[in-house]
Amino acid sequence: MEQPIAWEESLARDLISDKAELEGPLLPILHALQERFGYVDPRAVGLIASALNVSRAEVFGTLSFYKDFKKQKPLGRTIKLCLAEACQARGANALAARFEQASGCRIDGGFSGGVEIETVYCLGNCALGPNALYDGEIFGALTDEALAALHARAARDGVAR
Ligand code: FES
Questions:
Q1: CATH topology of domain 77-160
Q2: N or C end of the chain, less CB within 10 A?
Q3: Which keywords describe this protein according to UniProt (predicted)?
Q4: Average pLDDT over every residue of 64-73
């Protein structure tokens, strides 16, 4: 996955028009914008509404409904840590608790030092849990050391933004 870049209206228009002809285009458009810019800028709402010929309220409603969509420029980098059943069975909860204790960072507690760790529920790599997703890459069979290293990498990437 490419690194997010600063909001650019012409690029946003291109991303929207690329997907406008799909059946059910709204979610693919929102995902494309978030992937490219790291969030869905509020300025996209009007662009999407006019491209799809729907109301701004409809676009905004969908954007707000899904917690995965960020509406503000992220303050750093995000690691998604899976706490769904199969990863839990492979020790994800204990891993998360040890990480919080060792690092002083809170999972789902927002950005700290330019990094946030958000929980997600299944990354599709259940047999190799515990799993995390960072920068489009899945990290499986996570150990305490691997999660700490991933966190350190995200902190460095956050500074480099
Ligand atoms: S349960 Fe964690 S990847 Fe499926």
A1: Glutaredoxin (3.40.30)
A2: N
A3: Iron, Iron-sulfur, Metal-binding
A4: 89
